[in-house]
Amino acid sequence: GRGTIGGTIVGAFVIGILSDGLVMMGVSSFWQMVIKGLVIIVAVVVDQAQRRLQSRVTLMQMAKAG
Fold first, then answer.
1. What is the Cα gyration radius of the chain?
2. Which candidate among 2, 25, 37, 66 keeps its CA 20 to 30 Å from the CA of 43?
3. pTM
């Protein structure tokens, strides 16, 4: 996919807050890395699903128009 400056800033902010929260909760560094990795994976999967859905909608609209 393609990244945006705004998306990068939001992502860094979310990961930063998540990191701070995990430290405050006393989560071990191993589990902090696992949780942050899972959050990133979920974000990528959701982004790809949205892009695929949008491209399908665009193709369907083009098929109706053409």
1. 17
2. 25
3. 0.78
